[in-house]
Specification:
With 277 residues, the chain is α/β, with parallel strands linked by helices. Helices cover 45% and strands 21% of the residues. The chain has one domain: Vaccinia Virus protein VP39 (Rossmann fold), CATH 3.40.50. Helix 5 (129-139) links the parallel strand 4 (114-120) and strand 5 (140-151).
């Protein structure tokens, strides 16, 4: 019998497969948006030549490719085969990069196989994040390092929080629904999650990651395409509802608009690092 968690997990996996084409289209943007955060994660874990690195929930794999550029041997992985295909295409010709389809809640890799595990903006979507943290611990070698980035509190990330608020108002129900993991589900407690899994030297910091767009239309088109939890909802809306939602969001983002129509919306990522004993 399929449990509620298993059904939720299957839904989340399908969701990321469905939005993979949009992530391929906007891969360069995703790289630029996450560049500073990625460098922070690589610096904190001291990734370098000789390290064996696993990136989980890699998407278009900008972070893992940056690790490879530092000389590490990298495995790029995602639960969605469509995402790993994107990663493989972008890594073509790199001898120190491989790709695998892996579920971060059940990592099909041997014990103690990696020096570093990286996961940027993926762990918060796990149906069972504690299980995922335990799996990360398992695949790390003794004294191995991990860096996990998740989005900070919703109120400090209006670039996406405003969208959730507007969609919820349009639909007349909470988004995401209660009990369903979303982008802000680990905004509090990601460091405790690692500590409870058995990691040591657990630390947490934050990094400002504002979102800049040349116009409202540019921001909304890209956000609607890339926001996995929302994309499937938006696809079901009839045209009048989508138009009403766009108008609602245009008004909500007005405080963040410059005179020329460009937008700059605040964003904050939390970065937790730790070591395996």
């Amino acid at each position: 019998m399929t449990t509620a968690t298993e059904s939720q997990r299957a839904h989340l996996h399908g969701m990321w497969s469905a939005v993979a084409p949009a992530w391929a289209e906007h891969a360069a943007y995703a790289d630029a948006r996450g560049a500073d955060l990625g460098e922070r994660m690589l610096d904190l874990t001291a990734v370098g030549s000789g390290d064996r690195v696993l990136e989980l929930a890699c998407g278009p794999a900008g972070l893992g490719l940056a690790a490879a550029a530092r000389g590490a041997d990298v495995v790029l992985s995602d639960v969605a085969p469509e995402m790993t295909a994107i990663a493989a295409a972008r890594a073509a010709g790199l001898r120190n990069v491989a790709t695998r389809v892996l579920d971060l809640e059940e990592i099909d890799e041997p014990d103690a196989g990696y020096d570093v595990v990286l996961c940027r903006e993926g762990l918060m979507f796990a149906a069972d994040p504690a299980r995922a943290a335990a799996e990360i611990l398992r695949v790390l070698r003794p004294h191995g390092r991990v860096a996990v980035a998740v989005w900070g509190p919703r109120e400090r990330n209006p670039w996406l929080g405003l969208v959730f608020d507007a969609v919820a108002a349009q639909l007349g129900r909470p988004v995401p629904p209660p009990g369903v993991p979303g982008p802000f589900s680990l905004a509090h407690g990601v460091d405790a999650l690692l500590a409870e899994a058995g990691f040591t030297d657990v630390r947490r910091g934050e990094l400002a990651v504002p979102l800049r767009a040349g116009s409202f239309d540019e921001w909304w088109t890209r956000t609607a395409a890339l926001a996995g939890p929302l994309a499937t909802i938006l696809d079901t809306l009839p045209a009048p509802a989508r138009a009403a939602l766009s108008a609602r969001l245009r008004e909500a983002t007005r405080p963040y608009a410059a005179a020329d129509g460009a937008l700059e919306l605040p964003g904050v990522s939390l970065v937790a690092t730790a070591r395996k004993p």
